[in-house]
């Protein structure tokens, strides 16, 4: 064992192999040779384990046909453990029989503490649904049987042969009627179940579509009219500018924008802009940024400038799209990639900003979010 407490499977594997040779365990020699020749190269290891997976497809352990483990299982486990323990779930899925065997051996022989436990993602199990149908069939048969018994008990014991024959015919017809009724009930239940399942599936699809539309709604963005009070070059990045922007709050917002090669800091001072204020604050090259400036550009992005808010809009006023209602997120969730999903749908034509048919009037050029 190394000084840091980590295990040394190679040494243990060698000790086990020598011990088996010393004890002359001939039936184990095949697997001793397998363990000794197990490659160090990752790809070669994977190919060897795929072949081992094929061999384990029809048995639970390496020797014999039962569940009893042997020296061979312990030897091979010790040889392959260091490679298998680092496999990703996707690679584990390519050798299900090897993973099932490894999990069984480490549990059966209590090798987890010695070598380190291999985590295995085990699939869930759902019982088959055909039992419900069997129960219905069984109930139908019981109904028919109980009807037969009741009818037989009601038949008079002193019937003559002709009357008995008529009685049998009547019983058969009634039995047939009951069976037909039971089958019809089963069909009706199945039809109702199929209809309900279809309605549920349709409802789920509609709910998923509504949720997707919500994720892509521009109403999630809190875009406000801002005024750049001050602008200067970023102290450690030539492509960035830093602006102090007034959006009607008690404190000016500091924003870092990738506008250095397109705009002069002096030209941005006292300019009104459209600012997304509900992005998660974060540092850009060690300078805190608390928003994203919406900008316009030509097709090849050689000319970029901040969007102009609608004429007459007040500082701090929220910009919305005509026809789209909704409350903006308090803070956009970076994990949901909401900005990445919404902004590709923003564009401009003839000095009007569009989002898939909806417009903000008096904003010019193509929409472009500028940040580093």
UniProtKB/TrEMBL annotation:
Zinc found in the keyword field: no
Bias (Basic and acidic residues): 162-209
Coiled coil ranges: none
Superkingdom field: Eukaryota
CDD domains: tRNA_bind_EMAP-II_like
Keyword tags: RNA-binding, tRNA-binding
Gene Ontology terms for molecular function: tRNA binding
Residue ranges annotated for the TRNA-binding domain, each copy included: 217-320
A Pfam family recorded for this sequence: tRNA_bind
InterPro entries: Arc1-like_N (IPR053836), Glutathione-S-Trfase_C_sf (IPR036282), NA-bd_OB-fold (IPR012340), tRNA-bd_dom (IPR002547), Tyrosine-tRNA_ligase_regulator (IPR051270)
Region (Disordered): 129-209
GO cellular component, one term: protein-containing complex
Compositionally biased spans, kind Polar residues: 141-160
PANTHER family associated with the record: AMINOACYL TRNA SYNTHASE COMPLEX-INTERACTING MULTIFUNCTIONAL PROTEIN 1, TRNA-AMINOACYLATION COFACTOR ARC1 FAMILY MEMBER
Protein name, as recorded: tRNA-binding domain-containing protein
Organism: Citrus clementina (Clementine)
């Amino acid at each position: 064992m190394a000084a840091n407490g980590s295990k040394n499977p190679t040494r243990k594997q060698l000790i086990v192999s020598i011990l088996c040779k010393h004890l002359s365990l001939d039936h184990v020699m095949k697997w001793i040779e397998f363990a000794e020749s197990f490659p160090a190269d990752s790809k070669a290891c994977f190919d060897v384990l795929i072949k081992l997976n094929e061999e384990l497809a029809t048995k639970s352990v390496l020797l014999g046909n039962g569940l009893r483990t042997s020296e061979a299982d312990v030897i091979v486990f010790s040889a392959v453990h260091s490679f298998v323990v680092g496999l990703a779930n996707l690679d584990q899925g390519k050798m299900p029989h090897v993973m099932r065997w490894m999990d069984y051996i480490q549990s059966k022989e209590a090798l987890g503490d010695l070598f380190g436990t291999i985590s295995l993602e085990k699939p869930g199990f759902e019982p088959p649904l055909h039992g419900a149908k069997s129960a219905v069939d069984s109930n139908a048969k019981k109904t028919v049987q109980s009807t037969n018994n009741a009818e037989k008990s009601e038949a008079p014991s002193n019937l003559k042969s002709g009357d008995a024959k008529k009685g049998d015919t009547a019983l058969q017809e009634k039995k047939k009627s009951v069976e037909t009724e039971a089958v019809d009930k089963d069909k009706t239940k199945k039809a109702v179940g199929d209809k309900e399942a279809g309605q549920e599936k349709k409802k789920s699809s509609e709910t998923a579509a509504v949720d997707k539309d919500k994720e892509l709604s521009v109403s999630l963005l809190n875009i406000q009219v801002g005024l750049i009070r001050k602008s200067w070059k970023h102290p450690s990045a030539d492509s960035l500018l830093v602006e102090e922007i007034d959006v009607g709050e008690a404190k000016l917002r500091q924003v870092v924008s990738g506008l250095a090669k397109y705009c002069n800091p002096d030209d941005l001072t006292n300019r009104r802009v459209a600012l997304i204020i509900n992005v998660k604050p974060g540092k850009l090259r060690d300078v805190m940024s608390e928003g994203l400036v919406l900008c316009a550009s030509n097709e090849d992005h050689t000319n970029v400038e901040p969007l102009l808010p609608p004429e007459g809009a007040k500082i701090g006023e929220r910009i919305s799209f005509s026809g789209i209602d909704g409350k903006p997120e308090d803070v956009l969730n970076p994990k949901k990639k909401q900005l990445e999903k919404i902004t590709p749908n923003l564009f401009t034509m003839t000095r009007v900003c569009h989002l898939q048919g909806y417009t903000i009037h008096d904003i010019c050029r193509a929409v472009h979010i500028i940040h580093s």
